[in-house]
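Before a colleague's protein record goes any further, I have to sign it off. My question to you is simply how this chain folds and whether the tokens agree. I do not need a full report, just your reasoning and any doubts. This is what I was given:
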Amino acid sequence: MEKNLIKLLPYTKPYKTNIVLNIVYNVLYALFSTLSMITLFPLLEVLFKKSNEVIKEPVFNGIENIGKFGKEWLFYNISHLNKTQGPESALLLVVVLVIITFLLKNVFNFLASYHITHLKNGVLRDLRKTMYDKIVELPIPYYSEKRKGDMMARMLGDVNEVQNSFFSILELIVKEPLTILFTIIAMLNISVNLTLFVFIFIPISGFVISKVGKSLKAKSTRAQEESGYFISLVEESLSGLKVIKSYNAEGIFKTMFGDSINRLFVFSNLIGNKNNLASPLSEFMGIVTIATLLWYGGNLVLVDKTLDGSLFLVYMLLAYNILTPAKNISKASYAVKNGLAAAERVFEVLEIENTIPNDKNAIIKKSFDSNITISNINFKYKDDNVLKEFSLEVNKGQTVALVGQSGSGKSTIANLLTRFYDVNEGTIQIDGIDIKKLDIHCLRGLIGLVTQDSILFNDTIKANIALGKEDATDEEIIEALKIANAFEFVNELPHGIHTNIGDSGNKLSGGQKQRLSIARAVLKNPPIMILDEATSALDTESEKFVQVALENMMQNRTSIVIAHRLSTIQKANKIVVMQKGRIVEQGTHEELIALNGTYNKLVSMQSLE
């Protein structure tokens, strides 16, 4: 627990003032919580006309005697009012005093809560921001191993749990213990013998409660993992709804979801029941102590006559005053166990090392001047090499096409050039500089990427296109749309470039979405363009529109085109034919046809389709 608390400390630094004020107000709350009970004693004394008459006005003799001075001052004023103005005035003074102490107790409670609320919400905001920054910064390979839903559960559920649970510690170590401490000091002043029972009760109840909560952390971890799985299932169901329905697989997914929420139901019940047990368990143990005190204290009042009845009533109220903080301590200790499990999952993500880091002395490069050189690279995603001793040079202004069957490693080249992944062996250089030594944002600033899947966001057309150039004007957006052969259909939309295109752009056709992706790359205006099977998912008519857009875009640019349909790359300066991660042929379209090899077979097969 200490480790996770220490990890959380940096997030509390901006809110030091809130922490200090929370502690101060909690101390004052604890003090007035006790005083509010003690002020009931003079009230009872006045009601039962037992107040000890103090004739001489007391003198303040230093802070160490403040308790004695306060008591004598109060009884002096009660005596004085009794004599001069009658018992009604004395009673009014005591009632006003009771009201003031209870008011101050609750004001300080509110102020303490006010500052801890600012602390909790501030740390929640900062943790979420740090978590989101980390999620966005983590490299693509990390997410090939993880469920998106698990990430969402950590961002939403676990961070919330940390906020709700860990700040219970402030109350666990300040507010409630001090309330108990001040109350016990007051109780010791009334009767040492009676207070011994309280000293016996607190450690026994603490031991019993800790025994009950021992397995809570493990169950919380399992519940949080299950929560991640179930969120992931919802996310996958929504994104794959067409496939689920077309294969009549609703029943399979309903069963999977039902099993998941049933497991979550069991874990949540186990955790909830243990949490629920904390409060009644501590209250029951408190009542057992109160009952013992009633029996023993009653004897002191009625039989031994060694304790005043009014004092005994105040003592019982003080003893009962311990029960609430004792309950809160047991609840908070359970909450901390839940928070501990959540914090481990949050910090597990925050502490993941980025496997594709930016070099500490990264080179800032804003231009592309001569060539891209890929030298003897080997790369594997898991076990088998996807690229084997692959070498290629792309000169500035050239269009180089990569062709080959699925799985030959074409798209891997795009992933390596943009440093979504790093090569295992060999180097990739731009203008003679290893891309690992380039600032990663500069590298990606030089490259425009259009993928087979048109990835668009639930926002306006303008916002989607302006991703690479936030300050783009409407005129620049429209110009990019014209180059991408998309202005015509956008202009017919109800709000033009300000039209919202829905989740993943689902209000548009496949061809329209792809042309918007091209417009986004055009507006970014990078010197190097990578087109990863940008037309393979389109029908023939859409492909013609997109092909015109791509040709417009590739003018005066260096382009690497990963193509499935060979008709789209015949004008390329160089065509590289790949097979099982190796280059088997390269040349122009005419040269490769004349070779009558692999490329010619691929062209023949596609012309027969």
